[in-house]
Amino acid sequence: MLIMKFGGTSVQDADAIDRAARIVRSRQKQKPVVVVSALAKVTDQLVVIGHKASSGDSKSAAELVLALKERHFRVAGDLLGARHCQDIAPRLQKLIAQLDGFARGLAAVHELSDRSSDALLSFGELLSSEIVTAAFALRGLDVVWMDSRECLITDASHTAARPLMDETRKRSQAKLGPIISAGKIPVMGGFIAATAEGIPTTLGRGGSDFSAAILGAALDAKIIEIWTDVEGMMTTDPRLCPDARTIQRISFNEAAELAYFGAKVLHPATLLPAVQRNIPVYVLNSRNPSGKGTRITAHAPPGREMFRAITAKTNVSIVNVVASRGIMVHGFLRSVFEALDRYGASVDLVAISEVSMSFTMETRRLPAELLAELKELADVTCEAKQAIVCLVGEDIRGRPGIAASVFSTVAEAGVNVRMISQGASEINISFVIKEGDVPHAVQQLHTRFFPKDRVGTGVLARPSRAMLGKYGNDDISGQNGNNPKRGSTDQVETSFPLRPVRARLGKRAKSISTRPAKQIRVRRKAIRRKKK
Predict the structure, then answer these.
(1) Amino acid 205: pLDDT
(2) Could you please report the per-residue DSSP string of 361-380?
(3) How far apart are CA 11 and CA 132, in angstroms?
(4) How far is the C-alpha of 178 from the C-alpha of 151, rounded, in Å?
(5) Quick one: CA dihedral 82, 86, 88, 93, positive or negative?
(6) CA-to-CA distance for 369 and 345, rounded, in angstroms?
(7) Distance from CA of residue 411 to its chain's centroid?
(8) What gap in Å lies between CA 477 and CA 73, rounded to an integer?
(9) d(C-alpha 289, C-alpha 466), whole Å
(10) How far is CA 475 from CA 203, 212, 459, 465, 499, in A?
């Protein structure tokens, strides 16, 4: 079984949905389950509708609802044509009417609770999944629309609900199992779910990826595919550095770190269910279905470079808390952490000394009440417009000189570092700089750790067993380093297996290291005869 999730840009219009249909058709034999996001930018528009309506601006909210209606009917018309569009029109019209009524209700009560927000945002995925199901059916795919809220069961933590996996597994297998066994393809909206009592919830912004992973774990899928508009996960944000390239292989731990610290390709929680069931996740480009994308697995082979990727998280604030003289240190730290806990503050980085503490948070999530309470305990300063730069790679464990290389590069770029942290996971080095310095710092770091003269996409390609023949167990990558003249098959095109010469050949290794395996064996026999 295969879970296929298509993001907003992969279903943003008629052309995108048509591409998605062709991709799904190519995977029919793998028994796919399709998860779709709302059309691109629709969730943002629903958020605005909620704010407008709850603030009493019902006229603006109604205009936005009308704009959404026109867009969805236009996309449906382009995909289905006038005659077939009539078949789906009643279902779309019913959803739009419910959305309009909901917005009017918000305007009447002048309130938008988290529970109401979840119900409001669910309309995006409900509308898109209806259109996608109809479009797929018209293109010859045997599809069935499913309501995600009947399969994905969560707790009542509205706007960021957590899945209840046992109940989700039970309901998903009961609802989807018979459909899949009958050779049909379920199509459902991502991001949305419900409590056991049927109250709508959402999994947090970007939660369609999370939905796909939850379903993959619940249905024991073999593969999870995340279809987006980029060529997989990149060595850095290509908008910051044009030289960024695709990462072919990456571990769950590395991908999770990147997602948490700013990489927007994946929802940070996406990989948790996949890790638990050891399901490989592929990040692929719907605009280039033949591309290899990025494969995320429990373990990834060592990369050519020191790091796997560089990411940056902007819109961050540093809060510096310095204990007043005379206060007990252990009491000071306890009071600060208790305050963070009371406000549910999600801290990114923490640095602690004997009488002071600094931490970073997303600026928009930093409660003013928290700062006020901390000021009663100590001297507090807050610096906004900061950013976290994070370098991730499992290969940095136990390697001396890593931090020196990073910070000497940052210093040469003329960028001042405000705070430093090496992750407890030992696979990342993070530091805080001014937001305005991010482009220059990332470019310099990428040039240093991912030089242009290195061919490849962040991972050293290993030759197949067929190519290695009887030498399939040799670890070529460990002996060749970065020198393409020593038999690295990802840089030297050959029609025969290459075998690195062992160290005992000494000076002869350089001259014969790329000879055919058969020629090497003959040469060794000649050497032994001469010794005798």
Answers:
(1) 76
(2) EEGGG--HHHHHHHHTTEEE
(3) 8
(4) 13
(5) positive
(6) 11
(7) 30
(8) 54
(9) 26
(10) 43, 36, 15, 11, 10
Select from 210, 184, 17, 189 the least CA-distant residue to 95: 189
Polymer length of the chain = 532
Tell me, what's the pLDDT at 325?
62
The per-residue pLDDT for range 170-223, each reduced to its tens digit, is 999 999 999 999 999 999 999 999 999 999 999 987 789 999 999 999 999 999
> d(Cα 121, Cα 177) in Å, to the nearest integer?
28
* Token code pair at residue 151: 């399969």
Question: What pLDDT is attached to residue 504?
Answer: 37
How many Cβ atoms from other residues are within 10 Å of residue 199's Cβ? 16
- Encoding tokens for residue 128? 């898109």
Q: What residues are paired with 283 via a beta bridge?
A: 226, 294
Tell the residue number behind the tokens 């109940």, with chain if given: 167
How would you write 135-197 as a 3-class SS string?
HHHHCCCCEEEECHHHCCEECCCCCCCCECHHHHHHHHHHHHHHHHHCCCEEEEECCEEECCC
Instruction: Give 187 or 376, the one with higher predicted confidence.
Output: 187
Mean pLDDT, the chain, as a whole number? 84
CB 208 within 8 A of CB 148: no
Q: Does 87 have pLDDT greater than 70?
A: yes
Query: Which residue, 31, 36, 39, is CA-closest to 9?
Result: 39
Give the up-direction half-sphere exposure of residue 135: CA atoms within 13 A in the CB hemisphere. Answer: 28
Select from 456, 383, 459, 393 the least CA-distant residue to 428: 393
Antiparallel, parallel or unpaired: β 2-6 and 223-228: parallel
pLDDT tier at 531 (50, 70, 90 boundaries)? low
Distance from C-alpha of 5 to C-alpha of 3, rounded to nearest angstrom: 7
CA-nearest of 485, 449, 408 to 247 is 449
Please provide residue 5's backbone torsions phi and psi, each rounded to the nearest 5 degrees: -110, 130
Q: Token pair 């850095």 is at which residue?
A: 236
In this structure, are strands 200-202 and 378-392 parallel, antiparallel, or unpaired? Answer: unpaired
Contact 187, 7 (CB under 8 A): no
At residue 491 the predicted structure's pLDDT band, cuts being 50, 70 and 90, is very low
Whole-Å CA distances, 116 to 6, 50, 92, 201, 460: 26, 9, 21, 9, 49
How far is C-alpha 448 from the chain's CA centre?
25
Which are the contacts of 273, defined by CB distance < 8 A and separation ≥ 6? 163, 165, 213, 214, 216, 217, 218, 279
Q: What is the pLDDT of residue 267?
A: 73
Local confidence band at 515 (pLDDT 50, 70, 90 cut-offs): very low
- Return contacts of 354-357, CB within 8 angstroms, 24+ apart: 354/329, 355/322, 355/323, 355/329, 356/320, 356/321, 356/322, 356/323, 357/320, 357/321, 357/333
